[in-house]
Specification:
CATH superfamily of the largest domain: Rod shape-determining protein MreC, domain 1
Radius of gyration: 47 Å
CATH architecture of the largest domain: Beta Barrel
CATH topology of the largest domain: Thrombin, subunit H
């Protein structure tokens, strides 16, 4: 059985090109020579070609708009990332500035406090921990015996009395503030020079005040009258502002007065304090009591 062999006809591409050129030339001559007769043909071709051209143009415009949109979105994304980075940097710088501002204000307050009680030697310390959740009734400072801190030394902040040192280690110390339930301070009214007892009250400080009792005076005590540490206190140095009187009334016996005291110190936001490194001299107290 014989298999048929296919004849593969190969045409040189240049001959095809020549033929196409010749055909196009003939059509061009015919179109030019017989313009009037070619009008229907051109119209027919236009009816087919024009819609296709419009569609192609529409697609081209749509693609171009899409490309422009993508380019615009990429540009916006890059710009957005750049702006976010700048905002983050500015936010960090702002936080640093706020922290520096806060520390500067704190140092200014400590300086003013140091000037106000210039007769007493002091050491600045930072609060490093607190026992309370909302109030600094007991807290730890970053100075200890190596810095000259001793038990019963008085602690100041915000222009007034914070409390007293109750425990001392080499590099840190514990302070009990005047708002603590175990705190009692002998005080004196600057206006009348009458004595009183200022007692801590964690329940009362939630309303912004602590207790003041054992007031013996015939003078009128008004809200806002200042109370300072008394000369007869066995641990607190005299003349340190404790706070301001509030709601002072007579007791049922009509012999003494009692009420509330608004502390001079904000016990919700303690950061830096001053520790007076001078202790109350018991010999001076004995001379006062004679």
């Amino acid at each position: 059985m014989k298999l048929r062999q296919r004849n593969n006809i190969s045409i040189d591409p240049k001959y095809i090109l020549i033929v196409l050129i010749v055909v196009c030339t003939i059509f061009a001559i015919i179109s030019f020579r017989f313009q009037d007769k070619m009008v229907p043909v051109r119209n027919a071709v236009s009816q087919v070609v024009m819609p296709m051209q419009k569609a192609i143009n529409s697609i081209g415009v749509m693609i171009n708009d899409r490309i422009d949109y993508i380019d615009t979105m990429e540009s916006l994304v890059k710009e957005n990332k750049k702006l976010k980075s700048q905002i983050s940097e500015l936010s960090e710088e702002n936080q640093l500035l706020e922290r520096d501002k806060y520390e500067l204000e704190t140092f200014r307050q400590l300086y003013d406090l140091d000037e106000e009680y210039a007769d007493y030697p002091k050491v600045a310390a930072r609060v490093i921990s607190s026992d309370g959740d909302n109030w600094y009734n007991s807290f730890v400072i970053d100075k200890g015996s190596d810095d000259g801190i001793k038990k019963n030394q008085n602690v100041l902040a915000d222009g007034g009395l914070v409390g007293i040192v109750t425990e001392v280690n080499n590099s840190y110390s514990r302070v009990r503030s005047i708002i603590d339930d175990e705190s009692n301070v002998s005080g004196t009214f600057l206006k009348t020079e009458d004595s009183c007892i200022v007692s801590g009250s964690l329940s009362g400080i939630n309303n912004g005040s602590i207790k003041i009792t054992n007031i013996t005076t015939d003078e009128v005590i008004e809200d806002g009258d200042p109370v300072v540490t008394s000369q007869i206190s066995d641990r607190y140095l005299p003349g340190i502002l404790i706070g301001y009187s509030k709601n002072i009334t007579k007791n049922s016996s009509n012999l003494t007065l009692s009420g509330e005291l608004v502390p001079a110190v904000d016990f919700q936001s303690l950061d830096m304090v001053l520790v007076i490194t001078e202790l109350k001299d018991s010999d001076d107290l004995e001379d006062i009591l004679k």
